[in-house]
Each structure stands twice: as structure tokens, then as C-alpha cells.
Predict the structure of SDR family oxidoreductase.
Amino acid sequence: MTSAVVVGATGGIGVALCAAIEDEGTFDVVHALSRSGADPIDIEDEASIAAAAARIAVGPAPSLVIVATGLLHQGERGPEKAYRELDAEWLATTLRVNAIGPALVAKHLLPLMPKLGRTVFAVLSARIGSISDNRLGGWYGYRMAKAALNQLVRNLSIEEKRRNDRSIVVGLHPGTVDTALSRPFRGNVRAGTLFTPDRAASQLLDVIDGLKAPDSGRLFDFEGKEVAP
């Protein structure tokens, strides 16, 4: 028996991912974890993450974990357009949710994944975290946090390979998806490039299905193309 885990299961993409995974019928159990859902987790609270891991540990080992959480704006706070807008508290919040939280999820869930056979631990990252692809500047906190997340993926992939040589740890760029996270910025989206959550989930699962062990440690977009670090 096997299980899948989606962290952030009440967000736009998370809900769609859970539905798509359940529809595929590949896994015996799908754990839908979220701050406000029936199976709670708070990625800003390590004790909450550890408790969720303990609940998962009593059932089938997870061979797929997707961390579908993220923070771009909150209340009046949003992406910084210039360095004059930098605020230490907001930077710390952005880093805590987008990078530190997924790191702690990895700390507690990776040990539950099988030591043999293909496993996938995926985090939703973003092209905006690519240093070499940064030509516009701005969005300081979000860029910094996603760059840190991409480095986390690389680090985890190296360590996990020692435990299971068929493990895959990746970042996934879902594109611009019609969710609350992207809502304030849709005016900048080109026609035809705003995806529904259902389409985004389907595309991401297709990418995951096509991954092989040598892909571990990399960032891929919704078409399966590697994003430069």
C-alpha cells in the first residue's frame, strides 16, 4: 500500500491536486493537509508539522509528497517594487512561509518515504526564484524566498540520494494560476497564460509522472522544461 501527501490542500492548486490524485486512483490513501482543513498542519509551527508526520506514519508510507503552499501578499503587504520598500518583518514572514516551512516539512516527511523504489518530494516554486533569469528586479522578498527554496531542493536531493538512489526531489513552477495568490497581478498576465487550478494540477502531475532519478535537485516548469537556477 502507498500514500500521497499534499501540504496546502485547501489552496487553489492544492485542492485541485488532491482531486486529481484521488481521481487517478494510484494511491491507497491521500493525506490532504492544510491549516484550516480536517487534517491540520501549520508550516510556520514545527510542532504542528511533527504531529502531522506522526499521523501519516501510522499508515502506508508516502511515495509522493507535494508541498503546495506559498505566500506572495498578505493584507496590505505585497511584493516590493523597489529596495526602499524593504521591511524586515515582511521579509522574514515571506522567507518563513516560502522556504523555512517547506524545509521543516521535508525534515519530518522525507524520513517516512520508502528507502527503495521511486519516490517524489516536490515543492511548488517559481521561475521568479531563478537568479540567472532575473531581468526585471523588484519583488525582493518573494524572489529571495523562492531562490532559497530552490537551493533547499538541491540540498535535499543530494542527501536523499544517499538514502534512496531512486528518490526525486524537485521544484515545480506551475505558471500563473487563477488563485487568490495571483489575483492582484492578473492585469500583467498575457492572454492564454492564466491557468485554471484543475489544468495546473493536471500539468504538474504529468510533469511528476515523467520525472526520472537524474532530474532530482532541479526546477521544472509546467511543460516539463528545466528552469535555469
Notes: Residues 3-221 form a domain with the Rossmann fold fold (CATH 3.40.50.720). The chain has a mean pLDDT of 95.
